[in-house]
């Protein structure tokens, strides 16, 4: 964030989800618009969470609108440009074209980097001001401000949407379901994955994937199968397609399973609830206590949980853009060397001391080669370089 953009305290940045957009990312967004819309001079350009107005400096549009709940940010934005109509308001309250002086006939492109902030997250929950999320129209209200903004664009009937948002909004099935109103009327037609580390004030310890997404209003819409098969371009290089990967969710129980156990079931280990790869970085794997987050592991599934445990040991070598996915696996190749994963896991986890295993001195080498082959096969040699 530039020096003049530091008027928000860290707490208020968390409350608003406000992190300002570097200029080079703004340029990418406009390049995406340029290659998808032939004549932008017929369109109104609007950023309904405009902050300091980084996305409002173009002159290639019929009219430009900027809105933000932060009056001081709008005050700064006005110093940058003279051809923008500004509004100080909550763009998620009383959503309508009329509130932005737009007619139903105006062709509309919405651009920007709306705040994204999971309002239900236990992380820094005490820092989040509930009042900021209460004043939202009920039909766009979700657990995440960014999703609410996406739904608001549908209410405004934007012809095109070009915004930055977490990749997880689309590739996590539960998140995609929350966007069903948008998905019914829009189709993702262009995009680019970037790292959150391109923002100087976010992801100080862990990067997550952000999508510069271009949506076109389309009566066919899109479903989750469309997203699974969609080829997301990665800024560094290559294409990420969700359907290219098999995941551990197809082989294990990720969530607490005590109520599903039968009397004859004899768990041999206990495991912490599994979410996505980024959560695996933070969370434990094997545990020795009964908690509300315990997954009870039966012997036939132990190799897969050992796989997850070893995957955690390698997680920092994985591409950042798969961080919101379930743990990836090549099951056929894994089966060939599953004893290596059991050996590697047991020897590094005291809670597994009662598990019998076969000595496998070359386990680490075989595991390295396994992950290298997996990433090369699915993403290309560049993303397997960390295993050389």
Structure overview:
A seven-stranded mixed β-sheet has the order 3-2-1-4-5-7-6, with helices on both faces. Strands 12-11-13 form a three-stranded antiparallel β-sheet. It has a two-stranded antiparallel sheet with strand order 8-9. The protein is elongated, with a radius of gyration of 23 Å. It has 14 helices and 14 strands. It has two domains: 3-243, Vaccinia Virus protein VP39 (Rossmann fold); 246-387, no CATH class. It has helices at residues 10-16, 23-36, 71-78, 130-134, 145-155, 168-171, 173-178, 180-185, 224-229, 277-282, 302-314, 331-336, 338-348, 363-379, and strands at 43-47, 63-68, 85-88, 107-112, 160-166, 186-195, 209-217, 232-233, 239-240, 246-247, 269-272, 286-287, 294-297, 328-329. Helix 11 packs across helix 13 and helix 13 (338-348) packs across helix 14 (363-379). It is α/β, with parallel strands linked by helices.
In short:
The protein has 14 helices and 14 strands. By secondary structure, the chain is an alpha/beta fold.
Give keywords.
388 residues, Rossmann fold, seven-stranded mixed sheet
Poorly predicted sequence stretches spanning 5 or more consecutive residues? 1-5, 7-18, 119-131
What sort of overall outline do the alpha carbons produce when their principal axes are compared? Answer: elongated
The CATH architecture classification of the largest domain is 3-Layer(aba) Sandwich
* Mean of residue pLDDT values: 89
Name of the CATH superfamily of the largest domain:
Vaccinia Virus protein VP39
Task: Label the structural class.
Answer: alpha/beta
CATH class of the largest domain: Alpha Beta
């Amino acid at each position: 964030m530039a020096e003049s953009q530091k008027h928000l305290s860290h707490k208020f940045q968390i409350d608003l989800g406000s992190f300002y957009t570097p200029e080079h990312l703004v340029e990418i967004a406009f390049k995406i618009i340029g290659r998808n819309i032939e004549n932008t001079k017929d369109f109104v350009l609007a950023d309904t969470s405009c902050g300091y107005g980084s996305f409002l400096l173009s002159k290639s549009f019929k009219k430009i609108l900027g809105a933000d709940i932060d009056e001081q940010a709008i005050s700064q934005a006005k110093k940058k440009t003279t051809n923008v109509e500004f509004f100080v308001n909550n763009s998620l309250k009383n959503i309508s074209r009329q509130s932005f002086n737009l007619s139903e006939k105006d062709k509309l492109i919405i651009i920007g980097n709306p705040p994204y902030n999971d309002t239900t997250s236990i992380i820094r929950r005490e820092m989040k001001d509930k009042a900021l999320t209460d004043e939202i129209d009920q039909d766009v209200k979700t657990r995440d401000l960014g999703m609410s903004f996406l739904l608001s664009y549908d209410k405004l009937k934007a012809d095109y949407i070009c915004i930055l948002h977490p990749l997880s909004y689309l590739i996590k099935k539960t998140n995609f379901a929350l966007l069903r109103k948008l998905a019914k009327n829009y189709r993702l037609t262009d995009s680019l994955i970037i790292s959150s580390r391109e923002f100087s004030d976010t992801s100080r310890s862990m990067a997550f994937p952000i999508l510069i997404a271009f949506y076109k209003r389309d009566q066919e819409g899109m479903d989750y199968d469309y997203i699974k098969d969609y080829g997301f371009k990665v800024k560094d290089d290559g294409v990420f397609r969700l359907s290219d990967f098999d995941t551990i969710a197809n082989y294990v129980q990720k969530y607490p399973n005590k109520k599903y156990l039968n009397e004859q079931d004899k768990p041999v280990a206990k495991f912490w609830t599994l979410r996505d790869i980024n959560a695996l970085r933070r969370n434990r794997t094997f545990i020795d206590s009964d908690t509300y987050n315990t997954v009870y592991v039966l012997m036939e599934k132990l190799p897969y949980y050992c796989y997850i445990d070893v995957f955690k040991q390698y997680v920092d070598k994985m591409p950042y853009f798969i961080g919101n996915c379930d743990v990836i696996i090549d099951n056929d190749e894994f089966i060939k060397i599953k004893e290596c994963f059991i050996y590697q896991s047991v020897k590094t986890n005291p809670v597994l001391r009662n598990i019998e295993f076969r000595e496998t001195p070359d386990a680490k080498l075989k595991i390295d080669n396994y992950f290298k082959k997996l990433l090369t096969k699915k993403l290309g040699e560049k993303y397997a370089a960390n295993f050389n």
